[in-house]
Design goal:
single chain, alpha/beta, Rossmann fold, Nucleotidyltransferase, domain 5, 3 domains
């Protein structure tokens, strides 16, 4: 019977022999697949059964070992055998199954030693399942160094290392595996990656970069997926954003092994998804990131709102409430080079709209590259959510005049903004010929905590509705709150290059709308004659 590797392994099937004779003319990928499918599962209920690669695994092996590619990137949900697959390739590499170079060198790199040990243990497990004649050609070191050395065919060595670039400077690996790359510490991880890649060219080496999704677009692993350089093979199993956590079709996109007996079944994934939905918070965020392979932050203790909380506010354009009643304009004026953002809120219906503006220099494409978000700003511009005005700065007066036009004739009852920019607001409103009250609010603990709490309450009560907006999704994903010892919150960025201007403008507008709705209506008193 076919066997399966427990804990996120391969589906297995019968094979004739451990080391099948490879016919001449076979490609490197074909040799690798033949070798992998001759291995035996080292542990689990199907231990001792032979392996059979799933379709998505074959596809990755073919892309990774294509002579035109130096780097192969795989992003897939947890438990789909990505580490086991790469460990099998590492074993074949040091055994010289498709590479005749002497003294082959394989690196198993991870954030720390414990994570690197996972891939090391897979290799050891495969080795221990080999026939005795094969096993005797290996030396396994488990002390201060985690190494597997092969003493035949010119020799090969697989080493496990942590994310410290100094540990491999001067190396010349024939194969490098960067495991769970999205979880690496930013500076040390980039140092290690650069050191590894710089050594690959010496011996025509290859790098396999594998991980579940990073929490944001700025992560180095995300940039490998979004902006792959020449000679890079990318295979990403990530569903569309905004779908329910227990949606079956999208779960299978992130977990293709579920239909081929690898890892968790679809029923188990849906059960865990519903449990995470019921618990909410970090449980739901972690499930989306790890099991659905979505770019969702797993840190929820200080986020302004979670992705699922925000999704409750998004509705189809046909279901969007009308622009009825007074309109409140929340404004976050940008600095000399940053974004200026405005949010319109109609408290009677709960409708929210937002727009952002950048100066023309540098271009949106260059800003996206500098901020680590790829083409996101250009996509916002195509959707009409982000505009460009001015050269090096956004002129406050003309910009505010253009923003007001977007209200479509609705009566703007007030403008809400940062009190420390009061002079700039006054000048801008005068130039835009706006004669409405200006309500200043601080972004510190006092005003900020109240505005954040009112915004959250309005959102949770279903009093905020907006069409799907990439601008707002991006802003809220970068927005966190800092908490003082008394439990007060103030808005802040999750990362230095984050753009939370649209989120700040929305918080100001919705909070003021909540205050206006909460105020009791004044009742006129009839004349009293003495």
């Amino acid at each position: 019977m076919p066997g399966r590797l427990g804990g996120g392994g391969f589906e297995g099937a019968g094979c004739s022999s451990l080391s099948p004779k490879i016919a001449r003319g076979k490609s490197t990928a074909e040799k690798a697949i033949r070798f992998l499918e001759a291995l035996k599962i080292p542990e689990g209920p199907k231990a001792g059964k032979r392996l059979k690669l799933a379709g998505f695994q074959r596809k990755f092996v073919e892309g990774a070992l294509d002579p035109a590619n130096m780097v192969a990137v795989l992003s897939i949900g947890r438990g789909n055998a990505k580490t086991a697959l790469s460990a099998g390739l590492a074993l074949g590499s040091i055994m010289g199954e498709w590479d005749a170079q002497p003294k082959r060198d394989v690196l198993l790199a991870a954030r720390n030693r414990d994570q690197a040990k996972t891939a090391f243990n897979f290799i050891v497990g495969f080795v221990e399942s080999l026939p005795k004649a094969k096993r005797e050609r290996f030396i396994i070191r488990r002390g201060s160094r985690l190494e597997v050395e092969y003493l035949d065919k010119g020799g090969g060595l697989a080493r496990s290392i942590a994310a410290d670039g100094r540990s491999i400077l001067g190396g010349a690996p024939t194969l490098a595996i960067l495991d769970e790359r999205a979880a690496w510490e930013r500076d040390k991880g980039d140092t290690l990656e650069n050191a590894i890649l710089s050594g690959l060219g010496k011996r025509n080496g290859k790098a396999l970069i594998i991980s579940t999704s990073a929490p944001d677009d700025a992560n180095t692993f995300s940039r490998w997926l979004d902006e792959p350089p020449a000679g890079t093979y990318v295979q990403e199993h990530r569903p569309a954003f905004g779908l329910p956590a227990d949606d079956a079709d999208s779960l299978l996109i992130a977990n293709p092994g579920a239909t081929e007996g690898i890892g968790a079944s679809l029923e188990w994934l849906q059960t865990q998804a519903r449990r995470a939905i019921a618990r909410g918070g970090s449980a739901l965020s972690s499930f989306r990131n790890l099991n659905r392979n979505e770019r969702v932050s797993t840190e929820d203790r200080s986020v302004l709102i979670t992705v699922d909380e925000w999704l409750t506010a998004e509705v189809a354009p046909d279901d969007l409430p009308d622009r009825d009643g007074p309109c409140i304009l929340g404004v976050d004026l940008g600095g000399s080079r940053s974004m200026s953002a405005a949010a319109f809120y109609w408290p009677q219906t709960g409708r929210l709209e937002a727009v952002g503006t950048f100066p023309a220099v540098p271009s949106l494409a260059d800003r996206g590259a500098a901020d680590g978000v790829g083409r996101r700003y250009s996509e916002m511009n195509d959707r009409g959510e982000l505009t460009v005005m001015g050269s090096n700065t956004v002129p406050p007066g003309p910009w505010l005049a253009e923003v007001v036009k977007l209200a479509g004739g609705s009566a703007i009852t007030c403008i809400v903004g940062d009190r420390f920019r009061y002079a700039e607001f006054s000048e801008a409103m005068a130039k835009a010929n706006l004669r409405v009250p200006f309500i200043w609010r601080g972004f510190g603990w006092k005003d900020g905590s109240e505005d954040i709490e009112r915004f959250r309450r309005a959102l949770f009560d279903g009093c905020v509705k907006t069409r799907p907006s990439l601008l707002l999704r991006s802003a809220f994903s970068d927005a966190i709150t800092l908490i003082d010892p008394a439990g007060n919150h103030k808005l802040a960025k999750a990362r230095s290059l984050g753009r939370i201007d649209a989120a700040a403008a929305s918080v100001l507008a919705v909070a003021e709308g909540a205050r206006q709705v909460a105020r009791p209506a004044r009742q006129s008193r009839g004349a009293v004659w003495a």
